[in-house]
Amino acid sequence: MNVARTTVTAIYERARTKLADALVNGKRLRIEGGNVEFRPQQTTSHRVAAGKGENVMRVAATYDKGNIFQHFGRTSQFKIYDVEDGKVTSAQVIDTNGVGHGALAGFLKNNHVDTLICGGIGGGAQAAMNEAGITLYGGVSGDADQAVERLLDGSLTYDPNVVCSHHDGGECGHHESGSCGKGGCHQGE
What are 57's strand-pairing partners? Predict the structure, then answer.
């Protein structure tokens, strides 16, 4: 393209910042500079069946290899459970396809999720869940299926005051060790 790599990188970063701002803050995104054709595509790999019954509760759990993933903003998958009459009627693992942090609330809302079970979660994401009308159970660890069963029988142990404050100053180190959400940075250390 006869353009320096640094120029391309700078253009890409500006575009990425504008796109993130539009998605997170609901701003209009205007695409200019030539003929553009936009054809939205729906894929089943990252979206649960749109409709759900009036008496169905949809629960999402951050998911990694059967367990609750401990960093909400970095989850690459959710396991979505449909619950009717206090029993799980279906479950499906869906990919976030790179959606992260602030956009995950919209992702869950678009998939008609009522309740979220997760490990660590930051204040901004908590506010986004609240605004989306999604009930949050944070500070949970262990097997995702068992967590949902405990939620349904009223025995789920969670932390209503879970806080993830390390976003301001870099990583806390608990994510790599698997202890995030179990004390460490998500308990206000």
Answer: 83
Task: Report how far residue 131's alpha carbon sits from residue 154's, in angstroms, rounded to the nearest whole number.
Answer: 24
How many angstroms separate the CA atoms of 71 and 140, rounded? 11
Q: What is the dihedral of CA 126, 115, 133, 44, to 10 degrees?
A: 100
The residue among 13, 9, 11 whose CA lies nearest residue 21 is 13
Q: With beta carbons less than 8 A apart as the criterion, state whether 131 and 80 touch.
A: no
- Those residues whose C-beta lies under 8 Å from the C-beta of residue 38, and which sit 6 or more positions away, are 31
Q: How far apart are CA 111 and CA 59, in angstroms?
A: 10
Q: What is the pLDDT of residues 84-133, one digit of tens each?
A: 999 999 999 999 877 766 688 888 998 999 999 999 998 888 888 899 89
The answer to whether 147 and 61 have CB atoms below 8 angstroms apart is yes
What are phi and psi for residue 83, nearest 5 degrees?
-125, 130
What pTM did the predictor assign?
0.63
Using the CB atoms, write b or e for 146-160: b if 16+ within 10 Å: ebbebbbeeeeebbe
- Distance from C-alpha of 104 to C-alpha of 92, rounded to nearest angstrom: 17
Q: Which residues contact 105 (CB under 8 A, 6 or more apart)?
A: 125, 128, 129, 131, 132, 134
